[in-house]
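in:
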């Protein structure tokens, strides 16, 4: 298990906190440090890097949650942005879509960067977003032809991805305004997000009362606890669609990130990205991340599955299966910053999406354009199209039962 680096001892904004590479150092004379400061301040500003606040200050600091207005929807509904910080991790969350607008983490020198792709303003999220940072429901991933049969009744969902229904339909949970309540607990600080999806919304049976807790723990983990109850039998598969780039959003592609996944099988898909039903071994395929490899290592292999997804856009079958407690399933390390993220989950599947459909048509939070492969998603979930795949773990939720799912993101830098 990796841990956070020991906190640097330099004061925020002091000359010693700036070096040519923006790192933190206490070496050199006062005069040489001043020269370095003068010579680099312009360069840092040009590179879009603010003077590095020392991690010493922030590692133990707990801030917020603090609320500020983030704009209004066309119908006048107010959208808030919540800012919180704990254990050295900083998070900004919108009431619209439960969107993680920013996730800031220190690198090995204590320099912070926003490692999640997104937009600077509400209008961009509303106009057209490929689910940047959003909560996904009622059903994360695809349902073939948007149709499924439950207890003898067939339900039709909106078709919004080729012939299929994706991420809950054209107005899924990513486009709803959630009720947000802040909390502080011995575990950390966080937000409780609530949304009640009406009976029949987006074609799904039953009303669904959904609660999602985002917690920043004392050690800087970002934990997501999902819970839902239904008024009639229905299907549920909630997830989070954060696009990560551990070098910082807008800094280029993620192909050098090293990824390790505890998954010996994956669910191959057809040309519409619907699982064939097979659980195929990852051995000798580009989907084998068991020993760890660069995300880009095999992305250009002439493998039929990569052609379907324009890269990797596949559900990995996690070896641990469904667990009551979150178990570690993924580790990603970005070599230049030293930032590492580990993911632990209770879920049986993980959609690894290598940002294939980003095509240079969005300018992100810091104003840089996102191109193919500039971010990746690791969406903890049940398998795609489970309502039509009797051999997959069930996604049916019945009245009286509670859907529960937990995913923990832990961060380190070294
Ligand atoms: C999911 C899907 C991808 C793509 C992205 C959004 O991760 O699996 O195919 O639709 O969302 O662009």
């Amino acid at each position: 298990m990796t841990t956070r680096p020991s906190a640097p001892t330099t004061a925020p904004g002091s000359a010693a906190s700036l070096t040519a590479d923006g790192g933190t150092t206490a070496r050199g004379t006062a005069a040489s440090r001043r020269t370095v400061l003068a010579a680099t301040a312009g360069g840092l500003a040009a590179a879009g890097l603010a003077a590095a606040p020392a991690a010493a200050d922030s590692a133990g600091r707990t801030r917020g949650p603090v609320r500020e207005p983030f704009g209004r929807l066309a119908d006048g509904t107010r959208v808030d942005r919540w800012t919180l910080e704990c254990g050295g991790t900083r998070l900004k969350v919108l009431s619209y879509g439960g969107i993680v607008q920013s996730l800031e983490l220190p690198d090995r020198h204590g320099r912070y960067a926003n490692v999640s792709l997104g937009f600077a303003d509400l209008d961009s999220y509303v106009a057209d977003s490929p689910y940047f940072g959003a909560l996904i429901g009622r059903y994360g991933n695809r349902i073939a032809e948007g149709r499924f049969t439950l207890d003898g009744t067939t339900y039709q969902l909106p078709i919004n991805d080729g012939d299929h229904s994706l991420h809950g339909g054209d107005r899924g949970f990513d486009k709803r305004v959630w009720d947000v309540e802040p909390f502080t607990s011995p575990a950390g600080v966080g937000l409780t997000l609530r949304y009640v999806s009406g009976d029949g919304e987006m074609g799904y049976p039953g009303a669904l009362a959904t609660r999602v807790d985002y917690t920043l723990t004392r050690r800087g983990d970002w934990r997501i606890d999902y819970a839902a109850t239904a008024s009639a039998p229905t299907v549920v598969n909630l997830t989070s669609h954060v696009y990560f780039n551990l070098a910082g959003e807008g800094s280029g592609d993620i192909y050098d990130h090293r990824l390790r996944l505890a998954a010996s099988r994956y669910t191959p898909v057809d040309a519409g990205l619907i699982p064939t039903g097979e659980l195929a071994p990852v051995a000798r395929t580009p989907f084998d991340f068991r020993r760890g490899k660069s995300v880009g290592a095999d992305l250009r292999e002439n493998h039929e599955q990569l052609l379907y997804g324009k890269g990797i856009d596949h559900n990995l079958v996690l070896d641990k299966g469904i667990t009551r407690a979150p178990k570690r399933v993924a580790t990603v390390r970005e070599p230049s910053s030293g930032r590492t993220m580990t993911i632990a989950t209770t879920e049986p599947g993980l959609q690894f999406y290598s940002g294939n459909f980003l095509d240079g048509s969005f300018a992100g939070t810091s104003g840089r354009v996102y191109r193919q492969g500039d971010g990746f998603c690791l969406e903890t979930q049940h398998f795609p199209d489970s309502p039509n795949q009797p051999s997959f773990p069930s996604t049916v939720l019945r009245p009286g039962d509670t859907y529960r799912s937990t995913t923990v993101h832990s961060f380190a830098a070294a």
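note: The chain has two domains: 15-57, 67-413.
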